[in-house]
Amino acid sequence: MNLLMEEMTWKELEAKLKETKTVIIPFGSTEEHGYHLPLSTDCHIAYELAKRVGTRTSALVAPPLCYGVCRRSEPFPGTITVGLDTLRSLAVEVAESLYSQGLKNMVFLPGHLGSAQLVSLELSARELLRRHSDLKLAIIRLTEILKELPAGLIDEPFGHGGEVETSIMLALAPQYVRMEKATAETPSFPPHLFGRDSRRFMKSGIIGDATKATHEKGEVILELFVKEISKVVWQLEQGDSE
Length: 242
Known about the structure:
7 helices; Rossmann fold; four-stranded parallel sheet; globular; alpha/beta; 242 residues; 40% helix; 9% strand; single chain; two-stranded antiparallel ribbon
């Protein structure tokens, strides 16, 4: 069953809209992820997760949005950042377009977890909910789901380009991972001060220890993510939302 909107014709989508009112919108970024992971890491993770959840739940999957608000990584070559208001407006307009076609249950699935990115999506969600009383919307917080992992599976929180993201990419797309270049780095940023150039305080661009990543860890993490996000989809469809 094809659930990817970008691969459908309009007639195929029209038929599918008679079966589901739910859509997952993946939000990624184009951003450095150290020496060993591609710039597309966040977008790749969000989109692949959306595909797996769509298969499990029969929700439609919108094309991914692969630009995000990337502040700390902005000085690194390859990072393409947009403003907080730009992302907020884009999320609202994409959601409005989908809503106008009858999609009333929406899941925002961010693979890029920067604080400004999440604030943008939260602001857009509040605006959409004010506009439409019949809209149900969820924002997935992957870091919260990670708390449900078996004790001892991973040694660090989500980080950036570290153990978790690298493990996920090893499970999803090992051909894009340069494990021979994986490293560990825990940069120390000065408290309170707002720096102009994060490269003064970090060398590789990652936060965490990518050398601890394995394909096996990635598979466990992915299965947990898919299971928990699928529960959110079903909750929306059953009307169990705020």
